[in-house]
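Title: Prediction job returns without error message
Component: structure pipeline
Severity: low
Priority: P3
Assignee: unassigned

Description:
Job completed but the reporter wants confirmation the result is attached to the right record. Sequence as submitted:
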Amino acid sequence: MNISLRQLKVFLAVAEHGSFSRAGEDIGLTQPAVSRCIRELEQELGLKLVDRTTREVTLTEVGASLSATLARVLDELESALRDTHGLAEERRGRVRVASAPTISANLMPECISACAARYPDITLMLRDQVQTLATDSVRHGEVDFGVIVASEGTDDLVGEPIMVEPFLVVCDRSHRFAKQAQVTWKELNGEKLVLLDYASGSRPLIDRALAEHGAYCHVAQEVGHAITVFRMVEAGIGISIMPALALPAMPGLPENGGRLVALPLVPQLDRTIMLVRRKNRTLSPAAQSVWELIQQFTTNTPHALATQTTSKP
């Protein structure tokens, strides 16, 4: 049965006014259009709903019964549609976001604070996980979306880049690199490295760049957290290659008595931070608001760390 909401509303208008012309004036249709809607409705139902004369339109017994029921049903339908529209405007509830450690520590706190200020009825819950687990949390629907490092193997997700940041060489101020303005990839050849392990989204990018530039290094230690990397570099175990976003975890800068220096790599290698969500899944209004807030935060207020390239003694 192919009956439209428009036909039903036209029928109710005719039932109320007892006239095609007055019904048309009420709902903004011409008399022929009203007549056509009623005729199509009767054909679809296989029943006669109105009796027409040159002077008046009256409901048949079936038409009167339908009119009484239909008015209540359409009122309930309109009420349900209004409620649904209200949900689309609602900005409340709990939003779960997964992010990789350097992002969790150095980008998300400000986003959480901004969310609390703009949407006081939304609670943003952060799941701080290594890249692989954060991505899996998105895939399995354990979180609304993720903030991760762009990498291979995420084609099954919808991704949107929000930020680009460079990798830097981090070394002790006693290292020969500390006196340079920048470091080339080839100069890394033969160096001992302390790197984040393969649970990090950055590691494949670093390995690929080292191979492309012919820098053959000994990886002295592979660890899971940025602060561990920096402590090992301080201890003289090796130097490191880290994303700029990790720098807040770095011990005090040389001018403040610290031992570590961060220098640009040439040619520059960047990593992309992106928002990811499941394909064919619509975010809730609250989650969509947080997604857009993070977009705006990284676009309109460029994070200082994303452009920081060097810290020299």
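Comment from assignee: result matches the submitted record. The longest helix spans residues 61-89.
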